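Q: I have 384 residues here and want to know how they pack in 3D. Can you give me a structure?
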Amino acid sequence: MRAPARLSDEAAQVSSLIGGIYDAALDPELWPRTLKSIGQFVGGPAAALYAKDTVRKTGNVFYVHGVEPEFVQSYFDKYVSLDPFTTTRFFFAVERVISTKDIMTHDEYWATQFHKEWARPQGWVDFISAALEKSSTTYAECGVFRHKRDGATDEAACRNMRVIIPHIRRAVLIGKVIEQHQVKAAALADTLDGLAAAMFLVDPAGRIVHANAAGHAMLNIGSVIRGSAGKLSAADAQADHALHDIFMNADAGDVAVGAKGIAMPLCARDGERYVAHVLPLTAGARRKAGVAYSAVAAVFVRKAALELPHPLEAIASTFKLTPAEMRVLMMIVQFGSLREVAPMLGISEATAKTHLQRIFAKTDTSRQADLVKLVAGYMSPFGQ
C-alpha cells in the first residue's frame, strides 16, 4: 500500500531539511538559508543561531534569517538583559524545546518592556527555542520567532521543533569540532590533517577508508578506538555495536541516521570520557566527499568537555527560587531600583516588592546590597 501523498510530502520535507542542516556543518555559509527552512518547518518567518553570556550580559548572533540588522544590533546593545528568556533558559535541559508559556503567561510576556520595545514592533508574539550547549556562564541556542499572523506557539510547532533540534545540535557540534575551518564538502579531504580532533572516513561496514594524523595517533594508542582488521571499532563492546549500527544507517540517508542518533559517548580503558560525532556523507553537498573515498560517514572523536552547572542554576537550586523570583533577582542586581525594574518586567511595583521579600526570606538576606554580593559570589570563578 502506498503512503498517503501528504505523509510522503512531509517525509521528503523532513529529509531535505535534515540534509540541509548537516550540509551546513561543512559549509557555514548555508546556515542562513537553512534557518529560513527551519522557520518555515516550525512555523515562523525568522530564526537564529546565537550565544549569550549571562555574566557579561552580552551575546553574539552567529547566523540569522528574517530579523533586520538594526534589531539584531539593538538586541545585544540593550535588550539582551531584558529578555525573559536570557536567565530562564538555564532552568531547562539542553535540547528541551520551550516557548513563552513555559516561563510565563503570554499576558505577562506581552506586558514586559522587552516585548513592547523590541518584539512587538517586529510583529513577534512568541518565541520557540532550545539550547544546543550550556557552560558555566554561557549557552548557545537556536530559536524561531512566531509572527502575530502565526499566533502563539502550538503543539504542532513544538513537535516539529523537537524533530529537528537534535540534528541542529549535532551539526553545530560537528562544526565546532572542525574548529572554524571553512570546509567545503568537495575539499573535506584536504582539511583532514589540519584538524585537532581525530577524524575518520568510513564505509557502511565501518572500514576506515581515510584517517587524519590525529586519527592515526588515536588508533596507535588503542585506548578509545581501534582499527582491527581495517575497521573502526570502539574499545567498549556496547558502544562499538551502536557505532556500527550508525554506519549501516548512514548509507540509508540522513533521516535513518537521525532516528538512531549520531552522537555516541565512548569510554577509554582508563575511564576517560570521549564522544564520537558522525556526519553522514551520502546526500547533499556532502556527497562529493563521500564518493571520493567510497565513504558514507565522517567520524570525529575527541575528549568530552566537562559541563559545569551555570551559576544561575546553582543559585535557583540552592535557594529554591522560582523563575519569576530569579527574573526579579537578576533585574535587581543589574538595575537596582524596584521602581525601575517593575515596568521592565511588566509587573506592578507591589508585585515586584512581594517577590523581593520572598527572595530575602529564601536567601536569608535583608538588603539589596547583600543580594548583589550573593550573586557576584556565584558568578565569580573565585567566589566558590
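Q: Anything worth noting?
A: The mean pLDDT is 86. Residues 242 and 255 are 17 Å apart (CA to CA).
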